[in-house]
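Why does residue order matter? Because the sequence determines the fold. Keep that principle in mind as you read this record.
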Amino acid sequence: MTRVISVCLPMWPIDRLQRRADTPSAEAPLILAGRVGNRRVITAACHAARGLGLHVGMPVAKAQALVPDLRIEPADPRADLDALERLALWLLQRIAPIVAVDPPDGVVIDVTGADHLHGGEASLLEMLLGRLTLTGITARLAIADTWGAAHALARHHRGDAPCIAPPGATAAVLAPLPLAALRLAPATVAGLLDLGFATIGDLIATPRGPLTRRFGAELCRRLDQALGDAPEPIAPLRPQGLIEVRRSFAEPIGAAETIARYIARLVTDLCAALEARGQGARRLDLLCWRVDNRVQTVRVGLATAQRDPARLTRLLTDKIPTIDPSFGIEIMTLTATLAEPLVPRQASSLLEQAPPDIAGLVDLLANRVGARAVYRLSPVASDVPERSVTRVAALSPDQGGGWPGHWPRPARLLPRPEPIETMALLPDHPPKWIAWRGTRHAVARADGPERIFGEWWKRDAEARAVRDYFRIENEAGQRFWIFRAGDGEDRSTGSHRWFMHGIFG
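Structure:
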């Protein structure tokens, strides 16, 4: 089942202008002015301008009369399209292999088979919307079985939350939408409204013959594309300079062994092109164009830049079971979507023992279970235990200069401290026993306290906060890491309650 995301950017010209570094920040309402014939009209308006009654199509002279301190910038459709292509390239490198510009205010992404790498469709849409919002871009997202359905839902569904159309329910989700959602010419929409049609559902239940005779083939073509009855292929964005190799076949291929053989040839050609540029691939996209004009995609990522044909071939051939050749594949393309400089390195000598190269293992695991599932912990310059480590990519360098503090740290740190019952003498004595998760432990040995102060520069509440940590061992030899909130004397330093925070061994 094909799944397509439509990204609608309703404020794109305004967002593009406001994100420019050379644009002065101002609170005055902003509009973009362009020409329609001999008239100078508004082509885009910010939220503040819209709130004052300005709208697209209004004459600029009238807008200036209504809002004297209006900020006016010239419209630049070419710059808008160039910026939209740069955004699409960014999505191509991070989301899925098939991304295309949907001018004038959108991007379309074919995420068939790629959503699981991002935690599912809901997580993918949430992540994508969050990243766009953080960069100052207003966006509306929808995912559906077809480009036409996703395009319609992204622009016409109610609410600002991303819309997820269930697979196979395209007709049901499109039925209540207005006719303009089908990307029809305004004259066609006006004619349909005059005949009493109000929603897409009204068209679905109407015979096609009379509609075609009156409005032409475009109406039924758009309706069929939205419902999935007519193909609407997405031409992948391929910017200049992208390293890509291609194979066309006189006869369609479909056997796994044949696909593997041609993958090896494509990889060899791609590695030769990468070596000529002094680069290595960090992400590869294999696109298999079937005879029915559908595309099967395979994406593999690498922890470090590589151009080893054997390693790249193995990663791609492991994905062959996910390729459905149907009646045959007639074109295969292999693209280095993400490439980095790769310079030769001096091999280690017999006197120097090089660390083991685990990049191949990391690549194998990341492409099977997802890049987010393969990580390691890196130290952070913080004395607060839960802030002293962070997740980083498996082969990325450390972010800090070493583990903070000189006291031992437990092998397992709980996601959050859990309250325990204890009996202890204040202020500096360890407890005699603890009760945790319904089990009572007698303390045989203890070491501490290790006093950790709050980070006052992060939050005012931590200006006087104190924790006293103890390592304790019960009679069975189990070791725990516990702490008391507060210094044991002053209530302003903490509640003096006890908590379990980690387990040794």
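The mean pLDDT is 88.
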